[in-house]
């Protein structure tokens, strides 16, 4: 009985120790996770480059790795060159909003609403919606004045450059030897668990690669759908809103809601800046409509392919994992929830298959 109990306790204690160490060295773990993600993204390109043969000359593996990392850096740089000016432009648009014009334009309906709210004691007689709106817009404008945020961040913090160097360094060696992390884990493991752990690591990597590739495709498709839809509807700054909206899809289920909320705020602020006050309602419903249609496509076509076929998880499992991840580590926890759930399920299936609960939860894998 005691031996059977220890059999269950040891893996749990070991996992708890790993979680504590990961939390304590969170910065280092973040670098490793980003490098691991990039290595998984770059692995298919390296395999194709390694197969290229020109007159019996094959591209050296190290050269394939360098080409792959260079391509990833170029793609990331192009995104930054495209998106950063749009962010600065949006900040300038927000800072140019004329608060007095807005209040004057909506004075009559706001006065009527104030009377209604005061009549039913929802607000005090000395409070008005105009003052509240004015304070909120001033706060937004004060935030928007930091248009040189990214420049200051790069120029004043060496940690950004250090982090970038560490990630590139780790990514290079993870791509050079795709079994580096796996071998390191196996070396630290007891001999009797080597075979099971090796299989668990192999299965985890297979599922995670499929998941990350699926998420990348999903984000690109959603960015395209939302940007094109917003451009058709004539929504201002459609490219930035579509980019941010699509990017939020890295957070499963809840990401689209966050993306739509950001899109509505940015679109309305741009409309206010242009002085098109009568088009605010149209802009609001245009953004909501475009995001709604795009997310219907995402929910019924893209997500079932990614979650069910890649990580083989039930939607309820995914949703609960996201909630727990968000509670533990905020947005980062929500993004890492599904990969973490996948690894836990694979390890549990390999080491605790005899438990009925584990057998049930991993039956889809």
Strand content: under 5%
Secondary-structure-derived class: mainly alpha
The overall average pLDDT, rounded, is: 77
Overall geometry comes to: globular
Strand order of the largest sheet: 1-2
* Assembly status: single chain
Work out the helicity level: over 70%
Q: Give me the strand/helix succession.
A: HHEEHHHHHHHHHHHHH
Give start-end ranges of low-pLDDT stretches: 146-151
Largest β-sheet summary? 2 strands, antiparallel
- Strands, count: 2
From the alpha carbons, calculate the radius of gyration and give it in angstroms: 25 Å
User: How widely separated are the two ends?
Assistant: 30 Å
Discrete helix count? 15
Features:
365 residues, 82% helix, mainly alpha
In brief, what are we looking at here?
This protein is mostly helical and 365 residues long. 82% of the residues lie in helices and 1% in strands.
